[in-house]
Protein 1
Amino acid sequence: MFVLASASPRRSMLLRSAGYEFEIMPSDAEEKKDESLSPCELAVSLAESKCENVYLRSGGKICLGADTIVVFEGKILGKPADKSINAQYLKKLSGNVHSVITGYCIIKDGKKYSGYDQSFVKFNELSDELISSYVESGNGLDKAGGYGIQDGFDLVEKISGSYSCVVGLPMEKITPLLEELL
C-alpha cells in the first residue's frame, strides 16, 4: 500500500487498472516553476516537491508523486486559466507535434526514486467546430496543455512514446519501481 500524492482521477485510473491499491492525499505544496530548469528537470522537480510534501504529511508512508508538462515550440503550456486560453492552446497544437513530459517520484524510507518519461504527440488538424466543442466541454481546463488524450475527442493523430505518459503517469517506468519497492 502506498499514497498517491495527486488528486488526478486519470492517475488513479491508471494505477487501479494496473491492480494497485493506494490512498489518495493530494499535495498542498506550492508549485514553484524554476525557470533555470529544462522542462524535463522541471517535471521531475515538481513531482519530487509534491511527493516530499505528502511523504512528510503521511507519517513516512511510501509515496508516489507526478507532474505532467506540455511543451510546444520551447514553451510550456500549463493548465489554461480559462476557456479562451484553452482554445488558443488547441489552435497552436492543431496539426503540430508537441512533447508531453511526466516527471515522477517515489519516496520510501526517506529515499527518492525519481525520473521522467517523454512522449511526442501529433495533433490532427482541428476544425474550429471541434475546438469549440472541446473547449465548451470544460475537459481541458484542469490539464496541462489544455487537453486530455483520453477525453473522447478526435484530437490526436499519432503518439510516439507512452500513452500513459501522455495521460499523466508513465506506467512502463512506474510499474517496475513499485514492484521493487512495495
Protein 2
Amino acid sequence: MSTQRRRRLPADCLTMTVPEAGRRYLGLTRNGSYEAAKRGDLPTIRIGKLLRVPIAAMERKLAEAGRKPA
C-alpha cells in the first residue's frame, strides 16, 4: 500500500486543484469535482497539463449564485 504525500499550498496561493475546490466549496467527490469542472460549474484555467481553479473566480461565482439576471 503506497501513501500519498499531500503538498501544502502557500497561504497566498491564488489557485487550488479541482478536487480541493469541489470538496471545499461544494462538498463534491474527486470525480464529481471533475464533472462539475467539465460542465463549467467550477471555473478553471489550464496551466500546461494542470487544471486549476482560481480562488477569486470561484468565490465570485458563488457570490453571484442566486442573483437574478439583469
Protein 3
Amino acid sequence: MRQIHTIEPVFDKNSRILILGSFPSVKSRETRFFYGHPQNRFWKTLAAVTGGECPVTVGEKKKFLLDNRIAVWDVIKSCDIEGSSDSSIKNVIANDFDGIFKTADIRAVYANGTASYNLYRKYCEKKTGREIVKLPSTSPANAGYSLERLIACWSVIKGELI
C-alpha cells in the first residue's frame, strides 16, 4: 500500500550528525514520531551512548535529540510498503536533505540498519555528495544484536557530537 512520510525531521543549526532510518514503522506512523515501537532499542541505545536518561514522550525525545546535536529523519518520502517490512519497499521517492545540510553543520551521516544504508546509497548519496556509515539496526527484528552490542557499535557517533 502506498504510504507517505508525514513525520517532520528533527534538527537545528547545532545538529552535528544525521541518523537515517528507511521509512517509519506502522507503530511510528501511529505515534507520529520516530522509533515508536516499544521494542525498538533506538532510544535506549542513544541514551546509553550519550550518558543521558532514556526519553519517553515525543517532547522528551525531540529535546533529547536536539540537546545531543543529533538530527533524525528517514530516507524515504513515499513508497509502497507492506506493514513495516523494509524488504517489501517498492516505488521509492526519497526525501530531500538540502534543508538539513544547509541549516546544520552535519559532520557525519549514519544509517540505522542495512535497508536505510542501501536506500540512501541508491537514491541520495550522489545528490547529497555525502557518504553514509552503516550501523546495526536497532529494530527488534535484529535479534542478533543485544542491547549491549548495539551500544558498543553505536558508540562511534560520540566523537562527532563534541
